[in-house]
Amino acid sequence: MTEKLYDNAYLKEFDAEVLSCEEKNGKFAVVLSRTAFFPEGGGQAADLGVLGEAEVLDVQECDGVIVHTVSAPLAGCVHGVIDWETRFERMQNHTGEHLVSGIIHEKYGYNNVGFHMGADCLTFDFDGPLSLEQAAEVEALANRAVYENRAVTVSYPEHPEELEYRSKLDLSEGVRIVTVEGYDVCACCAPHVASTGEIGCIKILDVTPHKGGVRITMICGKTAYNDYCGLHADVRKLMKLLSAPRDGVVEAVEKLLGEISAAKGEISALKADLAKSGLEVTQIGAWAVGFLPEAGFDALRSIINGLSDGTALFALSGEYMVRGEGAGDLTRALNAAFSGKGGGKPNFTQGKLVGEQDAITKFFEEMNA
After folding, report:
1. Burial of 48 (0-12, 13-18, 19+ CB in 10 A)
2. Which ranges of the chain would DSSP assign to H, the alpha helix?
3. Domain range spanning residue 179?
4. Final residue of a domain: which of 82, 100, 128?
5. Within this chain, do residues 185 and 108 fall inside the same structural domain, yes or no?
6. What is the pLDDT of residues 245-287, one digit of tens each?
7. How many domains does the chain have?
């Protein structure tokens, strides 16, 4: 069985003997006598890095055997180097998750029932509701714990059944306990930082309903720092584009959106007036049938609302709108005759069809013959 060196989360390099190396689909499955590479588990992705001259692409543990998927064959004694930057960033985020989960469990009694660490953020699920205001309070408490620089320790208690700790699984042997002093005690197999101060900033990005509880999206440490740098750069661009100070960006955007909305209304009215200027209406039986140049639904609605019931308007681009008693039946007939799609209320419908003005006029004439 491979000796697991990753219990020392800060071990970055090691030497080991290659016990086996098998080619699989152009890659190589390697088993070592000892390893500092953490295999995927507990919601955390596998460590990356190099073994000798080979790149470590994945690490998995199956039935107690840790298999390293690498880019080239290996034999004999090899030197392993962990991608420390990636490992430490994951340690920051994972320990931050423990801290926040411990606070939520203590404060609200909710259990962490799901955890996933992605490339840009981590998500974890709880079996109870949490408002944005409550999440903000949890975030503040978690960051206070960071400033307190509490110890984070790992232990293997001889009698875990005597301890009170969080766990998603029913464990009885070889239980690895991660304790965040004063905040959390949890069973976990992953590497963590040695103190809460190393977590860095903790930021909850979102809280959304999920299976009767909530899903929290969060970032910590370097991930949070990189996120803030990106947001800061975006705000500076907005300040320049809007000629606004930092604390006036939101107000400037709201003002711009109001101006855009007003302009869209004016444009829509002008388009309707322009389309109406080319309107041709002919009374065919019970329906006043009108044809317009190219016009969208907004223009059609503006025009038909100013006309009497019993009107069917058609734009040359295919859009149509019908208003009056029997609009639903007429729409179904139009769709069937001209490969159209559309519907609505019994006395007000809209849709789009494929048909020339002459063919549509003939349709109404034959319908009323």
Report:
1. middle
2. 84-108, 132-148, 221-242, 249-277, 297-304, 327-337, 357-367
3. 87-228
4. 82
5. yes
6. 999 999 999 999 999 999 988 887 787 777 677 788 899 999 9
7. 3
